Amino acid sequence: MTNRVTTTQETKATTDAVRLLPRDRLADLFHALTARGYQVIGPRVDQGAIIYDQLTSVEELPRGWTDEQGPGYYRLKRREDDDAFGYVVGPHSWKRYLFPPLVTLARIERDGEDWHIESQPESPVKRAFLGVRACELAAIAVQDRVFLSQAYVDPIYQARRESVCLIAANCTQAAATCFCTSMDTGPRCRSGFDLAITEIAAGYIVEVGSELGASLAADLPLRPASPEDQADGEAARARAVAQIERTLDTHDIRALLMNNLDHPQWDDVGQRCLSCTNCTMVCPTCFCCSVTEVGDLTEQHIERQRQWDSCFHPDFSYINGGQVRGQVRSRYRQWLTHKLATWIDQFDVSGCVGCGRCITWCPVGIDLTEEVAAIRGNPS
Amino acid sequence: MSHQGTVVPPHPWVPHRAMIRRFCAEIPDVSTLDIRLFDDAERSRFDCQPGQFNMLYVPGVGEAAISVSGPGLEPGDWAHTIRRAGAVTRELTRLPVGATIGLRGPYGRGWPCAAAMERDVLIIAGGIGLAPLRPLVRYFLSNPSAARCVRLLYGSRSPDHLLFAEEIDRWRALGLDVDITVDRASLGWQGNVGVVPMLVDRLHPLDPTRTEVYLCGPEVMMRYTTRALLQRGVEASHIWLSVERNMQCAVGLCGHCQLGPAFVCRDGPVFSYEHVAPLLYTEDL
Amino acid sequence: MMARVRPKLAVFKFASCDGCQLTLLDAEDHLLEVAGQVDICYFLEATSRVVDGPYDLALVEGSITTAHDAARIREVRRNARFLITLGACATAGGIQSLRNWGNLPEFLQAVYARPEYIQTLATSTAIAAHVSVDFELRGCPINKAQLLDVLRAFLADRRPNVPKHSVCLDCKRHGTVCIMVAQGVPCMGPITQTGCGALCPSYDRGCYGCYGPCEQSQGEAWGRSLVRSGQPVPTVLHQLRSFNAGAEDWRQAGDSLDNCASTAGPARTEEPRS
């Protein structure tokens, strides 16, 4: 089994002949994964959206479904074809599986007046993510920096990350909320995957991104892609680029935001924002969390549980004496400046990958690109 | 079954067991606990620079970030001076000597001692802010060549709230210059009455070009004290202060303690005033 | 610790449905554990045994709707070292606080054959509007686990561990898809305090605010946004004015929307805003 590092190597796909997995043989990819012991996590329709869940077969893929998105708006729609990857991104992100929303860090057993603590590493589950978008590959790379490349490594993320196989899917369309081109993260999957596919009428154009990907490809009934297939693939990927309307001007954005910490726009957005935490929860890079003590009745057995938390939660910044960020405006400012500015100081990369989830899943449709534009258009 | 043979390290959020070895009531609501790690290897590994902090843990209640106020009375013990404020600190100061608690650390960047070389050192504390500065005072007293001269300015609410009063007397006996002020005098108090910035205003002589300041106290006290120091011509890059924020993981992974670009747990708690001033002066950052 | 005198507990009922007291009884085994550590001196729903105060802990259910109850709660407060209110009635005035927007004489005429025998206040108000309260436990009804934590916290002399964030945080942790965004269903989750585990949205139903406003609830921004996206003002008002109608943020939000309604234009039909 390969180490994670090898899977992020740049591919030599350009020198290989372009190959195609026929449309009716997608199940072979599924079986190649399960034969290697992978649990396949992929898209399926649930609760009126395309979510990521454990799949038992390719029959569960959202064939013939797409999504329509806008600020505070998401609807499933029928497609005219039966594409399996003909949607953009939904409410879930892969961070749910790498940085789980709830995890037990340690168990404490009391022994009279004394106590003992136990912290067992999770038993590793091999997961294959099927249908990872370019912006999501970028988001995983961002969280790799957060959890794996600082002085302290998060072992839960590390163990899960090292066991993951990434099957990327190039976007063949874009939502009204997408702006990956502004963040230089997509829509084309460039690196960080084991296999990448582009869905066209004839099937799936396959690119290999790692040794694991090459080994998977070797098990698939691939045939050389015809010039027409290749042109279809190019056209499909170009369609996604052409459909992206939203932009975020990132020029000198760090200085722009940090020099405008008292801009009246923060008051304006503070009047509209519900501080409900949704944007941070759907964001594929947000990593804030809290630990709570969960005791049983007699408090003989206690678990230290880590849960997703949010800088929009008023008590998130609480210290004795009060909340540091006690207003909605200051919490929105914290989120936006962290995501787009101070993240760069901390991790040498933007915290935003342009997936647009925070725009779509904001119940009142606040659009960070508009907030930034308002500050840029009228700096204080 | 071990997958890929990767050795998964213990989770950095998991505390080690430790014992409360000594309890000393200091002033109202403040006590010092001497704490010793159980595990021999952990204990011999543990070393702590002035200004660093530990996460102390009480099962069923939670963790709190507590600065280390120096080595304890016995070798291998470390003193933690704790103000009863939240649930964890209340419980910590209620537990009997001999009780098992959790400890992980030390964390953060402490006071930059080397910056004091050849300079006039001002150590300025407000209230319990003296606790993280105590190891620094002791460092200078035992290393006379580490600075040209050292002076302590200390303010508290009242004479009854003067922390480490007996030790301050010993420091004076060892030659440390100490100026003390209280917000409210009580009967018999003959010292200064007023806030800490007043002590700064009255400092004489003060050569601002060769002064190095180490400052810890409530945020509002630090704000006015730095203002007074700047007015006396002390350079912002030679003022160091310790910042308090909500800390949960202490290792830069949970996001709670952010102050602009800084994770206070990892990049602080001690910062150069020059770097942190624009952040401290922004409302609610 | 076991040798010490057990704290005296009393449970008082004001205008309410008894549901929150039932939550306490419903705790069953857990209640026995609690009962072992306290001396239940006054809890008419459970036992006829009555021991006089003063009490160490008074649990209060229900709102204040009569002059008699307004006097009685002051007596309860005087007799209690610690007073904790339970449920939407006690913490916000309950569903009966809808009378605060109505015409009491009209109600009395419509409902009672002999309205002259009814002595009641024109309003239903939270306990905290009358006496100081040490802790408010929200919910309609309250959550059993939270209640037990509050009791354990009292016994351990610590603050209760009751989170104050929005329901949305729980939906997202559970992986529940936002029904407001994906289905256009009005949902109070963004402005409601957690406590139920985000139950309703997981059954395709909008949150209806049982636990009242979350900390710094943005009721007015929420209501305005719904109206902007095509929800009729009466529908939004109906949501804000329910079990927790009397909670400060929602009362203000509802009144503000109500005042603006006359000047607002016709509601648009739902469409993606992009």
Characterize the structure shown.
The complex is a heterotrimer of chains A (380), B (285) and C (274). Chain A has two domains: 4-100 and 113-243, no CATH class; 253-288 and 311-377, no CATH class. In chain A, a hairpin with a 2-residue loop joins strand 2 and strand 3. The longest helix of chain A is centred in the C-terminal third of the chain and has 20 residues, at 328-347. Chain A is globular. Chain A has helices at residues 4-7, 26-35, 95-98, 134-148, 155-162, 180-183, 211-218, 227-243, 253-258, 264-272, 278-282, 328-347, 357-360, 368-377, and strands spanning 19-22, 39-46, 49-54, 65-70, 73-78, 102-111, 114-118, 127-132, 164-169, 195-200, 203-208, 223-224, 289-295, 301-308, 318-319, 322-323. In chain A, the strands form four sheets. In chain A, strands 3-2-8-9-10-11-1-12 form an eight-stranded mixed beta sheet, sandwiched between helices. Chain A is built from 14 helices and 16 strands. Chain A is 33% helix and 24% strand. In chain A, helix 10 (264-272) crosses helix 12 (328-347). By secondary structure, chain A is α+β, with helices and mostly antiparallel strands. Chain B has two domains: 16-107, Translation factors (Elongation Factor Tu (Ef-tu), domain 3); 113-280, Nucleotide-binding domain of ferredoxin-NADP reductase (FNR) module (Rossmann fold, 3-Layer(aba) Sandwich). In chain B, helix 5 runs parallel beside helix 6 (219-231). In chain B, 47% of the residues are buried. Mean pLDDT of chain B is 93; it is low at 1-5. Chain C has a five-stranded parallel beta sheet, sandwiched between helices. Chain C has 274 residues and is α/β, with parallel strands linked by helices. Chain C folds into two domains: 8-156, 3-Layer(aba) Sandwich (Rossmann fold); 167-261, no CATH class. Chain C has helices at residues 19-26, 29-37, 67-78, 87-92, 104-111, 144-156, 167-174, 179-183, 219-228, 233-240, 248-261, and strands at 8-13, 39-42, 55-61, 80-86, 135-137. Chain C contains eleven helices and five strands. In chain C, strand 3 (55-61), helix 3 and strand 4 (80-86) form a beta-alpha-beta unit. The chains are: A alpha+beta (380), B alpha/beta (285), C alpha/beta (274). Chains in contact: A-B, A-C, B-C. At the A-B interface, strand 6, strand 7, helix 5, strand 13 and strand 14 of A face loops of B.
